[in-house]
């Protein structure tokens, strides 16, 4: 059984994406295809939420378990099969691709086709540019390098180790 999903954004009107996935594919496999086609940073957290007909969030399907939560454990993308949760055309889910800034894509099951299986989900249609993933959540390595050099300057403000040894003697001699 093959699911035909329609993916869209409420922020970027001309963006549309169609993906076909086998009922036996995992949510993680679908996540990987979305990440790839939208050029999203795979190191960023993402999560799925099953949704009702009004797009209200239901059960979460997360990348990793949340050990700090007192809630029951979320379903995990790598262990959760699409066919276990999609039964009818127009079933919905929300894909949060930028968890910190709550940026989402909306996914609707358009059609269920009884045909040969797909090994991995496949993009069958794309239009427009995907919503942008925030870059403010990432480390700025140039800034860290500048901070490291500033930190190094703090230590060398007292002089080089050789100079201190000449003034105070070797540390081993004191002991």
Could you characterize what this model shows?
This protein is of the alpha+beta class and 175 residues long. It folds into 2 domains: 2-127, Roll (Structural Genomics Hypothetical 15.5 Kd Protein In mrcA-pckA Intergenic Region, Chain A), CATH 3.10.290; 141-174. It is 23% helix and 29% strand. The protein is built from 4 helices and 8 strands, in the order ββαββββββααα. It has helices spanning 27-38, 141-156, 161-168, 171-174; strands spanning 2-8, 16-22, 47-51, 57-62, 75-76, 92-98, 103-113, 122-127. Strands 5-4-3-6-7-1-2-8 form an 8-stranded mixed sheet, covered by helices on one side. Strand 6 (92-98) and strand 7 form a beta hairpin. It is elongated and about 85 Å long. The model is unreliable at 139-152 (pLDDT under 50).
Count of separate structural domains: 2
CATH class of the largest domain: Alpha Beta
Q: Assign a percent range to the helix content.
A: 10-25%
Assign the CATH architecture of the largest domain.
Roll
Specify the overall morphology: elongated
**Gyration radius, in Å:** 25 Å
What is the string of SSEs from the N terminus onward? EEHEEEEEEHHH
Which ranges are low-confidence, i.e. pLDDT below 50, for 5 or more consecutive residues?
139-152
Strand content: 25-35%
Per the CATH scheme, the topology name of the largest domain is Structural Genomics Hypothetical 15.5 Kd Protein In mrcA-pckA Intergenic Region, Chain A
């Amino acid at each position: 059984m093959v699911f035909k999903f329609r993916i869209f954004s409420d922020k970027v009107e001309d963006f549309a994406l169609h993906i076909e996935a086998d009922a036996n594919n995992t949510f993680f496999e679908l996540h990987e295809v979305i990440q790839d086609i939208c050029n999203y940073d795979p190191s960023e957290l993402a999560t799925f939420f099953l949704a009702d007909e009004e797009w209200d969030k239901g059960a979460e399907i997360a990348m990793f378990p949340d050990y700090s939560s007192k809630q029951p454990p979320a379903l995990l993308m790598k262990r959760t099969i699409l066919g276990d949760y999609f039964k009818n055309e127009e079933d919905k889910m929300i894909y949060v691709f930028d968890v910190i800034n709550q940026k989402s894509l909306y996914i609707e099951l358009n059609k269920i086709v009884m045909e040969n299986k797909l090994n991995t989900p496949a993009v069958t249609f794309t239009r427009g540019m995907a919503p942008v993933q925030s870059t403010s959540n990432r480390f700025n390595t140039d800034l860290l390098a500048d901070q490291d050099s500033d930190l190094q300057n703090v230590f060398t403000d007292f002089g080089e180790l050789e100079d201190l040894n000449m003034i105070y003697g070797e540390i081993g001699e004191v002991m």
